[in-house]
Amino acid sequence: MRVSTASFIGSATCNNVTLRGNLIFERQILDSTYAQGLSANPVDYLRNLKFSAEYVYDHTYALNVAWFQLTGTPDAFVYSTYQNLVPNTQGFIIDAVITQPHFDGSGFRCCAHWRGLLQAIVARMTSKGFAPSSLAVSMVVRTSASA
């Protein structure tokens, strides 16, 4: 198995940007499985590619967008439950985090802002042919104890 990873972290006064890329190339030696008739090939390959970008503002708001793709060798026995008998899949992940919600008397106004932003991103991606299977919005409320 070969693994290649690259990352970039940029920082300004209250802005942080992180870009990551990851490529995993896996060679599966299936001699025993092939001899037992449980694999169509004595050797299968998997390739996993992932890119992600994260933006953090003022250590409070974070947005992470990631895209992944998994491809591999067709195998009628190992991947018999997969369409086209291959492990191929791709998708994206969107994660938004608020670590210190700001109360303004009307509730979590910032949450409505993030929800609207995520809905706009999903609408744009859907119009380009991507169909999200799920959308996660995370919120962590940090409290401090008084002395």
CATH hierarchy class name: Alpha Beta
Distance between the termini: 53 Å
Number of helices: 2
Show unreliable segments: 103-109, 137-147
Topology:
Blueprint: E1 2-11, E2 15-29, H1 31-35, E3 43-57, E4 61-72, E5 89-98, H2 109-127, E6 136-139
Parallel strand pairs: 5-6
Antiparallel strand pairs: 1-2, 2-3, 3-4, 4-5
Overview features:
alpha+beta; 147 residues; 6 strands; six-stranded mixed beta sheet; disordered C terminus; 2 helices; Aspartate Aminotransferase, domain 1
Protein described:
The radius of gyration is 21 Å and the shape is elongated. The model is unreliable at 103-109 and 137-147 (pLDDT under 50). The chain has helices spanning 31-35, 109-127, and strands at 2-11, 15-29, 43-57, 61-72, 89-98, 136-139. The chain has a six-stranded mixed β-sheet with strand order 1-2-3-4-5-6, covered by helices on one side. Strand 1 and strand 2 (15-29) form a beta hairpin. It has one domain (2-139): Aspartate Aminotransferase, domain 1. The chain is of the alpha+beta class and 147 residues long.
